[in-house]
Amino acid sequence: KNGSQLCKLLGYHITDGCYELNRGRKNGIQFSNNNKLLIEDYSNAIKSIFGINPIVLRRKNNFSVRVISKNVVEFMKNLDSNLLEKGSIKKIPDKIMMCKKEDISILLRAMFDGDGTVSFYKKYIEFGIYGDKCFLDNIQKFICQDTALNKNKICKNRSIYSLSYGGKHNAKKFYDYLYKDAQGDQVTIASLS
């Protein structure tokens, strides 16, 4: 029913989310980012899925959305226990891997909005994201099957891996895949043409 909202929530949570801890027990989830639009989007997804009004905190230029709820913790655990682990463990839940193509696009968009990079060079643009190899393999699988982009090399730098797509043609295809239905504050398509 809420497939697109759930995928959005999970995309944000996987990249920039964590669990809340009270007296040694996981009692909620949290999402932090310095982009207020993403904070509002995450908050709205929480309201839509769980009917909960989350707490939004601000510290200087950073915002956090806190959701204290045993039901949310249980929901996340049932979906995939890795969702309530440290941020270094990034994994797309197996159940989510079977979602509709459109919902997977929303999941990936939220992941890139939360933790992706966009680099501009003189006549070159590159989109990238970081994580462990299995996580990036899954992301690449969706990108390749849904955009007809070729498989790209996943690079390792010390203990972290990165996946990126560069060049105007590839970047435009990738951008169109992620943001074709999006509204708001993304990179302007004119800069990719």
Write structural notes for this entry.
The chain is α+β, with helices and mostly antiparallel strands and 193 residues long. It is 42% helix and 26% strand. It is built from 6 helices and 8 strands, in the order αββαββααββαββα. It has helices at residues 3-16, 36-50, 70-79, 101-115, 133-147, 168-179; strands at residues 17-22, 25-33, 55-59, 62-68, 117-121, 124-131, 155-157, 160-166. The longest helix is centred in the N-terminal third of the chain and has 15 residues, at 36-50. Residues 185-193 have low confidence and may be disordered.
User: Runs with pLDDT <50, length 5+?
Assistant: 185-193
* DSSP strand content: 25-35%
Shape: globular
Secondary-structure element sequence?
Answer: HEEHEEHHEEHEEH
Give the N-terminus to C-terminus distance in angstroms. Answer: 36 Å
Number of helices: 6
Instruction: Calculate the mean pLDDT score and round it.
Output: 85
Instruction: Name the structural class.
Output: alpha+beta
What's the total number of strands?
A: 8
Question: Helical content, roughly?
Answer: 40-55%
Please give the order of strands in the largest beta sheet.
Answer: 1-2-4-3
The value of Rg in angstroms is: 17 Å
**Largest sheet composition:** 4 strands, antiparallel
Keywords:
four-stranded antiparallel sheet; alpha+beta; 42% helix; globular; 193 residues
List the helices and strands and how they pair.
Layout: H1 3-16, E1 17-22, E2 25-33, H2 36-50, E3 55-59, E4 62-68, H3 70-79, H4 101-115, E5 117-121, E6 124-131, H5 133-147, E7 155-157, E8 160-166, H6 168-179
Helix pairs in contact: 1-2, 1-4
